[in-house]
């Protein structure tokens, strides 16, 4: 049955909202945005003319509020809703609420979402269809004792998983019985917060395997095809980091077998729309059903780049009741595509929030950037940490890999820290470059903190000096150009301090030339007033990609890296080492979801004290020393700022 519509509300935010709106606009469909107070000036709101405000910045009070989303659609006279990914995209109650309100849901029906949304139900269904599944436990008894008994039967190592979810939430690797109960508690908390259900399952943990998924399209007339595979093996904490198509390990025979299994899984639940069936692939070529995602995937661009198809367009056309014109033999694959997820994380993979002072995505043939940020926006603690997806396409895998490394080098973000260096380390690792990466790649690699670049440090010092000089001259009544950097006495060095850099001395020699003393060596730096991005350091020409001073922060983009210094102006740096004092501060903005101790309790080093949730992930706070809980500065369920005191442990 054809269900035409020409107005579409996008019940999401960020890059995926913009990506959906672009396709809808091209199809002549008017799109409507929704936004939380935290997103009132977000790019996805400014992308179109119509937007409806939601109450509450937290996801549960805005983008996860079925009542508010439906009301926004009715208020704006939308005829259909596209959920994007995450949030309500795999919520069966939301799909039903859309239908009950007379709205077209761009996705599968409630039955498919409910069945495939439960890992236990999904596995029971596909097993009946003859698709191999990983041994595990999916019983109705959710007690700790039942899980312990099942774990002993399955054998270790094993995975705890949220039955209702995905994306790494509620997922824990356990290697022995002693750790099981504690990990069950954490998994339940994560699953409840992310999916509204704390039901868990167990699976035998398969190691040294690949994570391979098959993209499918199915219409309401019984036609179903697959669009090939994506290899998503490179993961950290069970969240995908790099994705590529086609998979480097798949033969044509294996591709056909996995493609058929994916189509069979979709048919088993009478699926329609775009969906993804995920498998684990062993070294011997055996594959096992993992789960089915009944929505658009984050990594769908790599499939679009190798097939030339617009998956969102087909989602909309199928939702309208159109027949899937494509047949399996029509699907061809051209070249290779690799995607990297650029996220707001520090070197310890903790969420990094705050304003974006400069965002400059890469450009070039074969490079696609899906982002939901721009200069002047802010990375909020309320939502996922992903900033953008950087995707490169080439005629072969090596060309695509090199193009992606180059694209990351040209990507500049001044503000929150990002995982760019981490992504480049992965892309240039021998295992990934040779196509041998498995799901345990991140655990095998060493990620050392990159030392501060002395060239960047010298340039940052000059930028600070010039900025101070500009401020002084603006306050002066008049300064003759000939007197800049002039002194009646011998040249006086300026002692400077930049956080995370050695103390240095700068001497202005005139004519844009500076001597920088640092770490016992002196560098001569020549600047060029007509080309402020060009520096010559001891005869070596260097060109800055970008530079910015914002408050006391000094940002320098050089040699494909973004470095952030903090001008100290003679002040001592930062806070004391809180771990040494037994003082634990919040590592990021977030919500305290659990406090497991009370004042006066005796604790041991490494003992879990509480949990902070930020950007949909749970972060354990553990005691740095043996001692007594002297103070607790947080309450369960309350928002807490980065650096705020959480616990004080006395060693007495």
TrEMBL record:
Keywords: ATP-binding, Biotin, Ligase, Nucleotide-binding. Residues 572-650 form the Lipoyl-binding domain. Gene3D superfamilies: 2.40.50.100, ATP-grasp fold, B domain (3.30.470.20). SUPFAM superfamilies: Glutathione synthetase ATP-binding domain-like (SSF56059), PreATP-grasp domain (SSF52440), Rudiment single hybrid motif (SSF51246), Single hybrid motif (SSF51230). This is Acetyl-CoA carboxylase biotin carboxylase subunit. SMART domains: Biotin_carb_C (SM00878). Coiled coil: none annotated. Residues 4-447 form the Biotin carboxylation domain. The keyword ATP-binding applies. Its EC number is 6.4.1.2. Its cofactor is biotin. The keyword Oxidoreductase does not apply. It is an enzyme of class 6 (ligase). Transmembrane segments: none annotated. GO terms for molecular function: acetyl-CoA carboxylase activity; ATP binding; metal ion binding. It comes from Flavimaribacter sediminis. Residues 123-320 form the ATP-grasp domain.
């Amino acid at each position: 049955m054809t269900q035409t519509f020409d107005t579409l509300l996008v019940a999401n935010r960020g890059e995926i909202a913009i990506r959906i709106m672009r396709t809808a606009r091209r199809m002549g469909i008017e799109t409507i945005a929704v936004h939380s107070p935290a997103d009132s000036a977000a790019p996805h709101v400014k992308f179109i003319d119509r937007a409806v405000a939601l109450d509450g910045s937290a996801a549960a009070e805005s983008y996860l509020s079925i009542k508010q989303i439906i009301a926004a659609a009715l208020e704006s006279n939308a005829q259909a809703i596209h959920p994007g990914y995450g949030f309500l995209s795999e919520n069966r109650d939301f799909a039903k609420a859309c239908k009950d309100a007379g709205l077209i849901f761009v996705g599968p029906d409630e039955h498919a979402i409910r069945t495939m949304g439960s890992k236990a139900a999904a596995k029971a269904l596909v097993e009946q269809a003859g698709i191999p599944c990983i041994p595990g436990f999916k019983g109705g008894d959710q007690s700790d004792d039942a899980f312990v008994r099942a774990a002993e039967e399955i054998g270790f190592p094993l995975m705890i998983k949220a039955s209702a979810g995905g994306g790494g939430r509620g997922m824990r690797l356990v290697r022995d019985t002693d750790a099981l109960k504690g990990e069950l508690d954490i998994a339940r908390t994560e699953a409840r917060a992310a999916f509204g259900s704390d039901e868990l399952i167990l699976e035998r943990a398969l190691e040294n395997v690949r994570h391979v998924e098959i993209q499918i399209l199915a219409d309401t007339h019984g036609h179903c095809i697959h669009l090939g595979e994506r290899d998503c093996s490179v993961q950290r904490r069970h969240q995908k980091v790099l994705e590529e198509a086609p998979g480097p390990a798949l033969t044509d025979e294996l591709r056909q077998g996995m493609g058929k299994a994916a189509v069979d899984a979709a048919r088993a639940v009478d699926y329609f729309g775009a969906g993804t069936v995920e498998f684990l692939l062993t070294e011997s070529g055996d594959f096992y059903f993992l789960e089915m995602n009944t929505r658009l995937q984050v990594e769908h661009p790599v499939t679009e780049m190798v097939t030339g198809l617009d998956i969102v367009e087909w989602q909309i056309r199928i939702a309208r009741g159109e027949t899937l014109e494509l047949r399996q033999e029509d699907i061809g694959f051209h070249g290779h595509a690799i995607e990297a997820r650029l996220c707001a994380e520090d070197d310890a993979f903790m969420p990094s929030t705050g304003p974006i002072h400069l965002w400059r995505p890469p450009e070039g043939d074969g490079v696609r950037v899906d982002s939901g940020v721009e200069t002047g926006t802010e990375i909020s603690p309320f939502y996922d940490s992903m900033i953008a997806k950087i995707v490169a396409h080439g005629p072969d895998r090596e060309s695509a890999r090199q193009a992606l490394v180059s694209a990351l080098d040209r990507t500049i973000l001044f503000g929150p820290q990002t995982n760019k260096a981490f992504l480049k380390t992965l892309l240039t690792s021998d295992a990934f470059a040779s196509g041998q990466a498995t799901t345990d790649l991140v655990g095998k690699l060493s990620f050392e903190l990159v030392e501060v670049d002395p060239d960047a440090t010298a340039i940052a010092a000059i930028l600070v000096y010039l900025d101070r000089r500009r401020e002084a001259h603006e306050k002066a009544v008049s300064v003759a150009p000939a007197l800049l950097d002039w002194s009646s006495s011998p040249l006086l060095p300026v002692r400077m301090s930049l956080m995370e850099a050695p103390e240095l001395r700068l001497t202005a020699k005139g004519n844009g030339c500076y001597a920088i003393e640092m770490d016992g060596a002196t560098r001569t730096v020549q600047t060029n007033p007509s080309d402020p991005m060009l520096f010559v350091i001891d005869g070596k020409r260097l060109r800055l990609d970008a530079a910015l001073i914002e408050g006391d922060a000094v940002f320098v983009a050089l040699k494909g890296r973004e470095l952030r210094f903090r001008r100290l102006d003679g002040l001592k740096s930062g806070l004391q080492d809180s771990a040494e004092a037994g003082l634990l501060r919040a590592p990021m903005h977030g919500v305290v979801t659990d406090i497991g101790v009370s004042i006066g309790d005796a604790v041991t080093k490494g003992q879990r004290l509480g949990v902070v949730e930020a950007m949909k992930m749970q972060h354990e706070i553990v005691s740095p020393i043996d001692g007594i809980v002297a103070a607790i500065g947080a309450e369960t369920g309350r928002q807490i700022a980065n650096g705020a005191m959480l616990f004080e442990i006395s060693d007495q």
